[in-house]
Design a protein that fits this description.
37 strands
Length: about 675
């Protein structure tokens, strides 16, 4: 029980003070005039003015509230190194028991796990949440059991009580870490890209000047090098293929090293072509020539060389050859000396006229067998006696002409195989496509793939692989009708662009492919095939264990599944003869960027209310009570500030000047003054 005098004035305080001043002035006047009742006048005025303030004696029935101590236990990934987690748990139990044994003290024990994704240790976020749930006026102390490695220091709250850090780890801990300082997301095929690495030792590390560095690409056999420690290492890397290239850097684990989780780094770089060089050979001017030219020139990454025969040799008009052009077209240079520089050669309605000798066309055949690509857009010339098929190119073309030309309207149709093939998959709205008006009848080879048919269900788009190269045949010269919007047009741009990129072996257009797309620790496994079904994908984790994942068909020829990787690292995928690799998680997880226990980052927060830091391996400090603003840490002890908080259960008020007493006292003093002064 506690009591105090409180006031509840009837008038504003300035008015009461003014009335008090008037009363004092009247008393002073009476004293100056020598009136004997001036003292009684003073007491009468005092009672009246005091009555206006309504003084009361207030008595409270208070129930004391306990002090609250927050105990945050860091259980993030870096705390699982060595014996830190076990030490933290044992220390938390002992400290909780010691605090709970103090009179009028409660302990709130809070576990801080890993943050979502790669957000790291969020100690200050957890502390802010804990303080928001407790009355700040009751918090007497805060204890953090951690290695001091946190990633949200900017969210540190204002502290209502001293905070102390009990540091895990040992003075003898050391760690070697591999840092990727510079790694581009894209690189040009055939050109070296420079990666910057650094290998550093932290803590009580052995005195070594160099270590081994192993480098592997796409999970292949690693190459080993000796590199210096503590220095930036610049590595020129040339990507072996287009698409995603996964490069793994590893340095072996040292003796008694704290962890090898940061000894490996994954870098994923997409290989892209710098410029695609295309040679377009037009046999004669026609409406479709501009379609091919516009398509290829619309892509800024394509370098186009267009060879057009404007005046065939059989034309006899008497014009001197020297007046036909300013310079002779370098056919020998293009078809013999520099043919390997081209990624794609397109023959658009070309027929044999003696301009390109057989040796040139034979060189084109060799170019395809060695990995090149040839696309033939056939017109009526393909069915004639001068057909390009009647040349050394017949050994690589995917279909043979029958000498028949079909001149009537038809709508191109995607075959069942074409619905699965990446070149034509998704192009199945044939009913809305415009018609083509001509087609050359061809007979496909046994190894060829027919993706589209036309008039009389005859092959229209035929693909084939020859040696290391690829060839394609469009048995019509009418694709330009779609680009002109004839009868609604069609997907001419998508079709021809996909076809050109398939021939140039872009990874995203391979018929048989297995790859994965990563989002955090989850991957979407994608298998594309021309077959009706696929088997389960075998996923090999970084630790060597295997999981079998069944795929579901989501569209013709495309099968998918989602898989959550349990750990960060390189995963290998295999289904049949298809293999792939992918890295899950960041190249360098934040939790393992720095692993040596250190309280330097938390020092400003701890020092704000004169808290302290102690290493657990040196023993658990004693707990003392200290006053607010006083030092809260010393040698072998840490302090908490008792808050003496309470809860008011009941309030009783007794008026000191009730109306009847005010009237009685004031009237008595006034009458007394009157009688005293009336006797003079």
């Amino acid at each position: 029980m506690t009591g105090e005098i409180v006031f509840d004035p009837l008038l504003p305080w300035p008015v009461i003070w003014a009335l008090g001043a008037v009363a004092l002035a009247s008393v002073a006047l009476a004293l100056w005039r020598g009136m004997p009742g001036w003292a009684l006048r003073f007491f009468a005025g005092f009672v009246l003015v005091a009555a206006l303030t309504q003084p009361s004696f207030q008595e409270e029935d208070r129930a004391p509230l306990s002090d609250i101590v927050l105990l945050l236990e860091d259980q993030s990934a870096s705390q699982r190194l060595g014996d830190r987690l076990e030490t933290t748990s044992e220390t938390a139990d002992a400290l909780e028991a010691r605090l709970a044994a103090r009179p009028n003290t409660e302990v709130r024990r809070i576990t801080v796990p890993d943050g979502e994704g790669d957000s790291g240790t969020l100690l200050m976020t957890a502390l802010s949440g804990a303080l928001a749930e407790e009355p700040r006026g009751r918090v007497a102390g805060i204890f953090l059991l951690s290695d001091g490695r946190l990633h949200d220091l900017e969210r540190a709250p204002s502290l209502p009580a001293p905070m102390h850090l009990l540091l895990t780890g040992h003075d003898t801990d050391w760690d070697r870490r591999l840092i990727v300082k510079n790694a581009p997301a894209f690189a040009i095929l055939g050109e070296p890209v420079t990666l910057t690495l650094r290998i550093e030792d932290d803590g009580a590390a052995p005195q070594e000047r160099e270590t081994e560095l192993r480098i592997s690409i796409d999970g292949g056999e690693p190459d080993s090098y000796r590199v210096p420690l503590g220095q930036d290492i610049e590595l020129p890397v040339t990507l072996p293929h287009g698409g995603l290239n996964v490069i793994q850097f590893t340095t072996p684990e040292g003796e008694a090293e704290l962890t090898d989780r940061n000894n490996t780094a994954l870098v994923q770089i997409n290989g892209v072509r710098d410029r695609l060089r295309v040679l377009l050979v037009s046999g004669e001017p026609h409406a479709g020539s501009r379609t091919w030219r516009n398509l290829l020139k619309s892509d800024s990454s394509v370098d186009l060389v267009h060879f057009t025969i404007l005046r065939p040799p059989e034309k006899q008009d008497g014009v001197p050859v020297t007046e036909l052009s300013l310079i002779a077209f370098p056919t020998r240079e293009l078809f013999l000396e520099k043919i390997e520089d081209f990624d794609l050669i397109i023959f658009d309605r070309y027929k044999r006229r003696g301009i390109l000798p057989a040796i040139y066309l034979e060189n084109v055949r060799n170019y395809v067998e060695n990995g090149g690509a040839v696309l033939v857009a056939a017109g009526p010339d393909f069915a004639s006696a001068d057909s390009i098929y009647r040349s050394p190119l017949s050994e690589i073309l995917p279909a043979e002409p029958t000498a028949r030309v079909i001149d009537r309207g038809y709508r191109p149709t995607v075959t069942d195989l074409g619905q699965r093939h990446p070149v034509t998959a998704g192009l199945t709205a044939e009913d809305s496509w415009g018609r083509w008006m001509r087609q050359v009848e061809v007979q496909p080879n046994d190894s060829a793939e027919v993706l589209m048919t036309g008039a009389e269900d005859k092959p229209l788009l035929v693909l084939d692989r020859i040696g290391e190269g690829r060839v394609a045949l469009i048995a019509s010269d009418q694709a330009w009708l779609w680009s002109r919007g004839f009868e609604g047009g069609g997907p001419q741009l998508d079709l021809l662009r996909r076809l050109a990129h398939w021939m140039m072996k872009e990874p995203e257009l391979e018929e048989e492919a297995l790859w994965a797309e990563a989002t955090g620790q989850r991957m979407r496994i994608i298998r594309r095939t021309l077959e009706e079904g696929v088997g389960a994908v075998t996923v090999t984790r970084p630790d060597g264990t295997e999981d079998s994942v069944s795929l579901k068909e989501v569209s013709p020829g495309r099968f998918e599944a989602e898989y959550d990787g349990p750990e960060i690292g390189l995963y290998r995928l295999k289904e049949g003869d298809q293999e792939s690799v992918i890295g899950l998680g960041p190249a360098a997880p934040r939790e393992f960027e720095q692993t040596i226990a250190d309280g330097g980052a938390l020092e400003p927060v701890v020092a704000s209310l004169r808290g302290g830091e102690a290493r657990i391996e040196e023993g658990l400090p004693t707990i003392r009570a200290v006053g607010a603003g006083r030092p809260a840490a010393g040698r072998g002890w840490l302090g908490i500030t008792p808050r003496e908080a309470f809860e008011t259960m009941d309030v009783t008020r007794i008026p000191l000047l009730p109306p009847w007493l005010t009237l009685l006292l004031a009237a008595g003093f006034i009458v007394g003054a009157w009688l005293r002064e009336g006797r003079r």
